[in-house]
Amino acid sequence: MQKSVVLAEKPSVARDIARVLNCGRKGNGFFEGDRYIVTWALGHLVTLAEPESYGDQYKTWRLEDLPMLPKQLNLVVMKQTSKQFHAVKAQLKRKDVGEIIIATDAGREGELVARWILEKVHVTKPLKRLWISSVTDRAIKEGFQNLKNAKGFEGLYHSAVARSEADWYVGMNGTRALTTKFNAQLSCGRVQTPTLAMIAKREKDIQTFKPVPFKQLSVKMKDGLTFDWTDKKTNERRMFDETKAKTIYERIKGKTGNVSDVQTTTKKTPAPLLYDLTELQREANKRFGYSAKETLSIIQRLYEQHKVITYPRTDSRYVSTDMVDTLAERIKACDIQPFRKIVSQVKREKINKNLACINDQKVSDHHAIIPTEQSPSETALSEKETKIYRLIVRRFLAAFFDAYEYEQTTVIATVESEQLVVNGKQMKNLGWKVVYADDSIENDGAKDQLLPKLTVGQSVSVKEVTITPGQTQPPEHLTEGTLLSAMEKPSVYLESHNKDLAATLGKTGGIGTVATRADIIEKLLNTHLVEKRGKYLHVTGKGRQLLDLVPDDLQSPALTAEWEQKLDLIAKGKLDKQTFVAEMKQYATDIVTSIKQSEKSFKHDNVTGSPCPDCGKLLLEVKSKHGKRRVCQDPGCGYKKNISKVTNARCPKCKKKLEIWGEGEGQTFACVCGHREKLSTFQERRKNNQNKKVSKREVSNYMKKQNKEEFSNNALADALAKLNLKE
Q1: Is 250 annotated in some ligand binding site?
Q2: What positions does UniProt annotate as the active site of this protein (predicted)?
């Protein structure tokens, strides 16, 4: 009997599939049952070969050898995971295997993981595709009952290959050209560089911003109500003419006017759309300060390990109509604290296909991130996983409620021909905001401001006029959350206001993809082109110089967005992969030519006074999230040495993490607050603290004593007694 090999992307998913398919026999890198053999990759097992494999001339980095344009890029097995590659290969080549089922992640990169393995193994057996959005047992069973023809995903594969080859040609050539021309470790990329340029543009906007002073008038009436002066034509509250503010102040001070208009309108705010990856990363950064990479890692665990959410690498914020029948079970899975009360309300409502979150036209490969039919156990999730899971559940449950509805009343008073305005707000239907009743962020705009009943013609008397000075504020530095927004909608970062390019950016969803943006931000930080100061991102001196050296068009988000659009056309079978790759080769050639002809220079701004022990050139000091290190400024030398490391030890003064400097007995702990102590002193202090610790028995006895003594006859005990509580 012929068997089917199931190729998963990771061991954890493979174990789940193997269990569902009754593959109980464990082999070397696979599970086997009567009908199926389940094996797995470890992410990518196969990748594009390094430049040196295309000729000895590329083993050393020389500007005259560029551009590197092999006719065809070769695949190689990754050394660190070669053992698993050969385990997978052995199963694919088995004579009793008649079919292969690709079960890697249902996306562009997942398709590439599997297809490159199959190409490297030279397997020609029939292919099928498992395409599922969650890895619960039910989803896996249904997926295997509805396996798809793998031919339908060849466009996705070609798109993935085109993306990978484009990054090779542009990145490898650009990076080698910059590094050899300017004798510094510099890198560029088709998404990385325009992202860096957006951060730099925001910094430039802040630096060139000139604050403009203005005045605002608030007018307190004798009945206690406070109005704001507004311009009759523009409704602008600010006055940039100080003389005008003083003139109006004198004109209306102590005067009487009347109510000229009272408008009451009913307004509705629908529930926010469901989460896609970018929106969830943005929200987690705003609320909890999590980086984009950290959030992706957390939700990947919620998806793969805990199986409580659907596929996370999605750019859709809707679900399709064929999912309506599954929503009741997903709601039931959310019937855990702190959502039980909300779930009971949702259960009373009939789920229909007219919900705003249900839209077949806006679901492409994957629907929005929503809960699965599986509940997490009380202790299964870590603190961070719980926070992200609750965000997803709240947003999901909110979709089943009516719009938040309120009445807004605007009262306009006229005093000496000047317009004074006050707004009131009264909630009519809390709607979806009931899900966020304990959430100060979502409910910030839900606070009511009730106005007394006022009628047109009613007299009002000015009691007090206050002039409040202010000035226009510069834009904020970008955080990871706001940078994700900028990458998603970068049209405002175009130097030229080209409507066609702006439209392109809108259609393509910006630069990069939802799955790659976190990695791009992380790479900018790791290569010291960007650094974090608090929660804000700042371009380093190295990053600013790099932008000065890189050709201008590589910095434009428009070019990158056009490429993303072409990759999408390849995925849909509307553009040939080779046409796009040929364009990338030409572009790489243009970049190299531009860099070769450059008369600019690069100057290190982090040079130390210490010479490199290997080549004698002065060392550079670079920061990382793990500490500081010194590296040789000559990329060809490669010398590097850690000089400080961030530890988990806490400062006794400010409680921040300490850095450890030096070597051997001379090692010293240092803190940003100025505290310093030798390693020997620190160890002695820690030893003394450990000696002071009390045992569990002592703690238990102390608590029992407290319970007897403290609550024997006090106000709290009396109050509890009056309640007559029963167990």
Answers
A1: no
A2: 311 (o-(5'-phospho-dna)-tyrosine intermediate)
